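User: structure tokens for this one?
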Amino acid sequence: MIEKVYEFKRDAKTKVVEKLVNTEHVQINHIVLPRGEQMPKHYSNSYVHLIIIKGEMTLTLEDQEPHNYKEGNIVYVPFNVKMLIQNINSDILEFFVVKAPHPKKLNAPEDPIKCE
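Assistant:
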């Protein structure tokens, strides 16, 4: 078999953070945030695409005002940008994080650096 299949949790109602794919070229995470949850504020450790598949994401980059993005949106975040992802408005926010190239290719840590 040439292809490789990855599975992710479906219909989660609690917070989920799964590192699904971690190859030399790309890193793909699956995240579910119930209302009121957020990811720790951190710096993007690669060129990031946020693929929102359920709910509405509130995203704050650097010192900008927060912006809301809904399911069906793909949001690009450049390398080394301070970011905060929150679920303020939806019962469930579900999204994928695609990091390409893999952070190691940019001499960045594999896990993002948290900030205040």
